[in-house]
Amino acid sequence: MRHADYVASQSQSNSATSALAASWRRSLLKHGLDPSDVRRPERLTLEELSRRRQAMDQFLRVASPQLDQLFNLVCLSGCNVLLTDAEGVVMDQRVGGADAEQFRDWGLWQGTVWSEAVQGTNGIGTCLAEGRQVTIHRNEHFHTRNTAMSCMDAPIWGPDGRLLAALDVSSARADQTERYNRLISAQVAQTARAIEAVFFRASFPDARIVVASDDNADAAAVLLAVDRNDLAIGATRAARRALGLEREGAIRPRPAADLLGRDDDLKGFDKAERAAVVRALARADGNISAAARALGIGRATMYRRMARLGLAEKTG
């Protein structure tokens, strides 16, 4: 059976329940696409692409070194590294000279549109449509013309919790195995999380960034931005989910200690006072006299306050 016929039959079958079949069904029935369509992907004008790139300038600058690193890992296997916006438009890429012509012919190039709505099931578009990591291997693509490629993708979430981009590695090799795809896919996911974390830090330049998870596997993704008043003013998507914060948009400032579960028996001004005393002692390397001077109080008063706040025994 021809690929286009098989895709059409599976898309219309009530018994097909896989995630891939669901994507094929969206492509055929929701978006009205034809799997046998041989037209090349749409491409924006240089002016349109320039406007989109300008709107994402800070993000693209932050992501660029990560794209370089990823490309250095996969370039020898005939891969193309692509970064898109949330609508599937390719914003940036890394590709070797020997493979450039093939990828350009396929439309895997800056300015082309790879949303699921216009390209059907594909790594970029399906990753964005479902907001999850995906691999679309050769004949899993909706369009027959795309079945010569394998695409490994991971979503990138912005500091506001909204889907910001997709990171894609596409391969032109006919002998590339699904096992090798899994290795590349793991690296794509790791790089996507790194870009997400670096951009989150860059988005809160005056805040300190706190890891809000004890789980080492998720530590790079579960981040809080904390201001000088110890209020959490930003959170990554993973942190929002883990801590029950607003799913999207700005978060309501909250004491970081409350979110991190690092509360104690002190409340109100006593709690704030102890934090101030602890900071002063830390800055003075434990020298009580110097810490007292920094706080504008006498040594005897400092000792009394330390005792009341439960710090005397710890600092001696």
Distance between the termini: 82 Å
Instruction: Provide the CATH topology of the largest domain.
Output: Beta-Lactamase
Widest beta sheet: strand line-up:
2-1-5-4-3
Structural class computed from helices and strand pairing: alpha+beta
Rg of Cα set: 26 Å
The CATH architecture assignment of the largest domain turns out to be: 2-Layer Sandwich
What would you say this structure looks like, in words?
This protein has 316 residues and is an alpha+beta fold. It is built from 14 helices and nine strands. It folds into three domains: 3-202, GAF domain (Beta-Lactamase, 2-Layer Sandwich); 204-260, no CATH class; 268-315. Strands 2-1-5-4-3 form a five-stranded antiparallel sheet, sandwiched between helices. A hairpin with a 4-residue loop joins strand 1 and strand 2 (90-95). The mean pLDDT is 89.
Protein traits:
single chain, 316 residues, alpha+beta, 3 domains, five-stranded antiparallel sheet, 47% helix, 16% strand
Topology:
Elements: H1 3-12, H2 19-30, H3 46-55, H4 57-74, E1 79-85, E2 90-95, H5 97-106, H6 116-119, H7 123-130, E3 134-137, E4 150-157, E5 163-171, H8 178-203, E6 208-211, E7 223-226, E8 231-235, H9 237-243, E9 254-255, H10 256-260, H11 268-283, H12 288-295, H13 299-308, H14 312-315
Helix pairs in contact: 1-2, 4-8, 11-12, 12-13
